[in-house]
Amino acid sequence: MIQPQKRFQIGKEHKWQCWAHHSTSGKRCPNIIRSREGEPIPVPYCDKHLKTGDGAVRVVKHPVAGKCLVARFDLPKRYKLAFFGYRGKCPTSDKEDRAISFYPPHKITGKNFDYDGERIVNYNGVLNPKGTGDVIQFAACPGPTERQNMRSTFAYFGRRNGCLGGLEFVTLENIPANTQLVHWYGPGWWSARGVKRIDVGIKNFPAPKRIKKNKEVEQKKGRTSCNL
After folding, report:
1. How far apart are CA 212 and CA 168, in angstroms?
2. What is the pTM assigned to this prediction?
3. Which of 39-43, 118-122, 218-222 has the lowest mean pLDDT?
4. Among 82, 56, 52, CA closest to 175
5. Which long-range contacts (CB under 8 A, 24 or more apart) does 8-12 make?
6. Which residue has the higher pLDDT, 137 or 121?
7. How confident is the model at residue 211 (pLDDT cuts 50, 70, 90)?
8. Is the dihedral of CA 174, 140, 52, 158 positive or negative?
9. pLDDT tens for residues 32-42?
């Protein structure tokens, strides 16, 4: 059974085990990861899985999106995946764009938060997955009647002005095999491209539906009583 992975910690480099699982057995890759460019925390995949991506998921054809990302095995809540790519300039929105903004972590702590818990915002270009084995780039955005089942965490890998960087994603719930992994792109992504947002779930590869609230329960919660 696939288990959630732990984040890499400074000072415990000997325990930096590749996050990926093998596509055939579902077993965790045993390879130990090393810093590649002097970065505090490297992209958590070995050289093999930087070329192929995590075998716990797979990219399949989609009738509208072209491709989408689905679970190869049942994935547990809090399972971690890493988006990764080469650092560079942000392309214009009139071109196909799968890049994600890069905010390199602190060079000593490897975290994206300072000692007071404040988020460190130090934009350093974008991470473009083109030419890599990254698979997160194919994860779709949920449609109007769907919900995300994974999200980014603002935990980045790499170093400022480095070549390769990454961003942590984590599942928000248990994801059955063949279910799509979807995350929210943000409202600006759609408006900048003039694209209409639609549902992406299909018969063979469904996406999780939004949970309908029970109006009656909600109304009861909002009531108050007063004995006079």
Report:
1. 29
2. 0.88
3. 218-222
4. 56
5. 8/33, 8/41, 8/42, 8/44, 8/110, 10/40, 10/41, 10/108, 10/109, 10/110
6. 137
7. confident
8. negative
9. 999 999 999 99
Q: Is 172:149 a contact under the CB 8 Å cutoff?
A: yes
CB within 8 A of 122, min separation 6: which ones? 103, 104, 160
CA 16 to each of CA 82, 93, 112, 175, 219: distance values in angstroms, whole numbers, following the listed order:
14, 36, 19, 25, 50
HSE-CB at 66 with a 13 A cutoff on CA atoms is: 4
C-alpha dist (Å) from residue 59 to 70, 136, 168, 179: 6, 9, 18, 11
Digit-coded pLDDT (tens) for 88-98: 988 776 666 78
Beta bridge partners of 127: 87, 100
Tokens encoding 173:
């719930």
| β partners of residue 210 | none
